[in-house]
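Can't attach files on this board, so I'm pasting raw text. These are the components:
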Amino acid sequence: MYDVAVIGSGVIGGLIFRKLTEYKLSVCLLEKAGDVCMGASKANSGIVHAGFDALPGTLKAKFNVEGNLMMKSVADELGVKYRENGSLVVAFCEDEVIKLKELASRGEQNGVKGIEIIGRERLKEMEPNISDEAVGALFAPTGGIICPYGLALAAIGNAMDNGGELKTDFEVVSIEKEEGGFTVKSANGECVTSRAVVNCAGLGGGKIAAMIGDEIRIGARKGEYLLLDRESGSAVNHTLFFTPTEKGKGILVSPTVDGNVILGPTAKEQADGNVLTSDEGLAFVSKKAGEMLKELPLYNTITSFAGVRAYSERHDFIIEESESVSGFFHCIGIESPGLTASPAIAKYVVEELMAGRYGWERNPSFNGRRRPDYFFKDLTAEQKNAVIAKDPSFGRTVCRCEQVTEGEILQAIRENPPARDIDGVKRRTRSGMGRCQGGFCQPYVAQLIARERGIPIEKVTKSGGKSYILMGVTK
Amino acid sequence: MKGNYDLVIIGGGPAGLAAAVAAYDSGVEDILILEREPILGGILNQCIHNGFGLTRFKESLSGPEYAARFISEVEKRSITVLTNTAVLSLDKGKLVTAMNAEEGVFTVQAKAVILAMGCRERSRGALNVAGSRAAGVYSAGTAQKYVNVFGYMPGKRVVILGSGDIGLIMARRMTLEGAKVLAVCEIMPQTSGLKRNIAQCLDDFGIPLYLNHTVTKIEGDERVTGVVVSKVDENRKPIAGTEIHFDCDTVLFSVGLIPENELTKGAGIELSRGTRGAVVTQSRETSESGVFACGNVLQVHDLVDFVSEEAEIAGVSAARYILGGEVKRDAVEVKNGKNILYVCPQLIDKSVGGKVKLFFRVTDTFKAPTVTVRCGNGAVQTKKLKVAVPGEMQSIVLSEETVRGLNGSVEVLVEVDQ
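---
Top answer:
Structure tokens for the assembled complex are below.
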């Protein structure tokens, strides 16, 4: 029997999983997909919010501000790319400047440091490519950017290195409360027993809650994005938001930690959780982003995608032990700023809600540092040569656009949590994320996956399931 | 590993190979070719169809055969070749940083550099085609690699977007391998591939071509299950109500090639918006003296024969630079006139001497157009064409005398009139 089973391997489940391995426990992470981090944490804006947006007194406000303060050290320990680039909420008329002042005072109430309202001139200095229509902005220096799936992958990998167990393809279909714990059953009949369960199932969080009799409605909202080539990376320095109005928050325009520019998201109710992009959605994103910048290099678009984020009807995070079933914890309805809040949520759930109550002991052998997560191309020539001398596969470039080597791809397939498909390698290494979108490297990545996993290349998938990349041999 | 060479050529495809041979034969023997793939030949290695070399060799060769002719010429000369070697950067001082498994990261100082990195395909992402991200969406060249090099089928029921040559070639190739190609869709009113490929790859196999059509949606959860194709209006916007649905498992994109100029940009070399390659003189010298560019990294060619021709110009010019040193430029600009997409070279250096061949592409289909090169108010050269289409590169030659007569800050324009 496990001490704790965590359901859902997004950034919330992942960081809770890791936090649990800081204690002397047996812990497992259950994921319905073939790889970890396949839901909302995979496709979102990647913003570390400063914390001026959430209403004072909400869990969102509390965990946003706490999470923001923790993010740098968490990213550092886990070797995840993170940059405090600062956020700007841009006003395009005097009414919006009034709104900015409200946001600033809300931020101060929430405990956000360093917020200031800046005028047109200062804004232009900070963001030379800003639209001439912009009149001012709220500047939050503690706003940042991070790779969201990078954070989840690293946290899960680190937890596994510390003894946590991962079960993918484990779609939870029933949960039975029994003497001293729970039996969690998967769609393919596998059972896991655990003393406590944490529900971090994202979009599926309501369904999981219902399995123990809790009724929590979780809605889904789709967001579509465009991603621009690194070549256009200098088009924007800070994360730029429109001033929120009655009509909504608008989209954001931001650099990413990998040097691209991200535009989006739309916000559309999407009960079925599909992640299809639409002509209307992408056109809306292009149009709005064009209003933010003087020059928007849309010709440098390299891909578009959509993600779905869950929200609860409480319009706040649900982070609590079930009222009806002891030992069952919900961490659901984690919409924005969930990514920012994730380290603080994990700390709260594990340390405040669980550890004391269960009398857990610290795990003295826990090592919170992952291997120094070098992106090989960022190393100096001397460092590269030291790595190549030990393992020549790092001298072979596979993905030319992002300069990813064979060594890194093999590492992604061999390390925790192991990549099993093309997209899994992509998320871990960036191979295929560049301007040719895998056109050159995919055949080689497929060969490496086939070789490492001992499967024929026809069985290699793009993204698990039956998403086979090939359909038989030639004549 | 030797730390300096007279000439370093980045890329061992058709451009790099021809440039190496030409430079060697012009008197520069200390040459290094850096190639990232395990073998020389570049993209020709996966082009197993024939039709290469008709202009140059007056025979129809396959891609590997065409490459082999140049590889054997390289082998006959004492030219150093490093395969499996990726160039990481080029700096202004012609210092090349490269990496492979044996040497690790190393630098080579060159007296002259020839850029011959080729091009890449525009991907689905660049077009923002809506829908799912299921497996089964490939650029045509990736599919070609799977079929011709790896021996695997990327799919069985195929819709192709774009009538570029690789797409047309793959329509035939997939059909020969037993796949069903349901449609080739082209958003423009005319095809972007060569006429002969339309005839030999589509018409001969009864593959329907949908002009003024584009893919507006890709469907499928894990693997592609279908696409929606829509007719477009004169602004290339999809027309509601014209949707055609195809059940397919594969979508191939053949929607243009983009010169791979990351190293060029890194070296601070000026690029042209028209070609997306470097701005060059007729010697194929870039804004950085002693750095030359040729082949598809400079401008996307229709035929490899023209790549070889251009590479030889670069090779000879690089040799002249190495042996004779830098000569002060006396350049006039070549500008795009009416109905012209781009002209290459973008500069005519009068100090070079000799005639100058200007390559260009037109923006639309023109029947019986006249091409005019103007200098000031007068036409210095004209040429009648039977037809000009964007998919086929054209050229016009300025005689040595004409070039000499381009005086002062002269502007050269190329126009096409109905």
